[in-house]
């Protein structure tokens, strides 16, 4: 009986500061498992963070959790429709919070999802709006370079090669400045394909040589695969049958290595 009386004296609601810490920890755990490629645990902790965030009413934190939930659903689960609903809600709340960083993040997620759905025009608009906001924040980060590379890919898919080239060159400049060699290899990979499509084989060959130098420096399997693939693409453009034959040999070897 004394125990029951003691319980009645305890607060019935969890203190706000404790709930805030719990929401923060849940968010960090969700992000950690997302980066580690463990989607089920990521979803579990992000949903917990979302529930607590909604109880606290912190709109930008709710928006952030929703954006990460959307990312997890489309990237690991392939649930594009559910992911888009989370992303749309994330964007709405981010705009209500008036915090540009979270608006930019939500727009980026929506851009990726629209891209997967084949809605390239909508995807491009989201990417461009996201970049504008990052520039307004003077947020010169690797994130802008990544968005630019995604934007370049979309333009290439639409056949807008000049715009694709402009975006990938901007991405390369940023990645060089930030010293991000791994991302620079991806940029060279996109650049070579754009230049081949434009018929600028001389510049494509120069970019392939630059990629070869990075490949020799990094000694990374993925980078080497990109280099060999792009080398094969250039060899296939040759008028010499011998070079086209070498291209086929490289592509066959890459397929065997993949299996």
TrEMBL record:
InterPro entries: TPR-like_helical_dom_sf (IPR011990), TPR_24 (IPR024812), TPR_rpt (IPR019734). Coiled coil: none annotated. This is Uncharacterized protein.
């Amino acid at each position: 009986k004394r125990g029951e009386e003691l319980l009645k004296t305890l607060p019935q609601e969890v203190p706000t500061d404790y709930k805030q810490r719990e929401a923060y920890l849940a968010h960090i755990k969700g992000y950690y498992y997302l980066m580690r490629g463990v989607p089920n645990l990521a979803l579990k902790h992000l949903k917990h963070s979302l529930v607590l965030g909604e109880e606290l009413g912190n709109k930008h934190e709710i928006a952030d959790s929703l954006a990460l939930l959307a990312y997890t659903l489309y990237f690991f689960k392939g649930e594009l429709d559910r992911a888009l609903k989370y992303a749309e809600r994330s964007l709405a709340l981010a705009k209500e919070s008036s915090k540009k960083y979270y608006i930019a993040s939500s727009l980026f997620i929506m851009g990726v999802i629209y891209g997967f759905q084949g809605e390239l025009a909508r995807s491009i608009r989201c990417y461009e709006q996201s970049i504008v906001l990052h520039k307004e924040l003077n947020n010169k980060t690797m994130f802008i370079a990544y968005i630019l590379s995604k934007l370049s890919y979309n333009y290439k898919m639409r056949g807008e090669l000049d715009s694709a080239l402009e975006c990938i060159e901007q991405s390369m400049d940023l990645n060089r400045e930030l010293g991000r060699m791994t991302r620079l290899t991806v940029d060279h990979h996109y650049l070579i394909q754009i230049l081949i499509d434009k018929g600028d084989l001389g510049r494509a060959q120069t970019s392939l040589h630059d990629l070869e130098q990075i490949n020799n420096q990094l000694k990374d399997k993925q980078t080497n695969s990109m280099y060999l693939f792009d080398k094969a693409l250039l060899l296939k453009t040759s008028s010499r049958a011998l070079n086209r034959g070498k291209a086929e040999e490289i592509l066959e070897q890459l397929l065997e290595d993949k299996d």
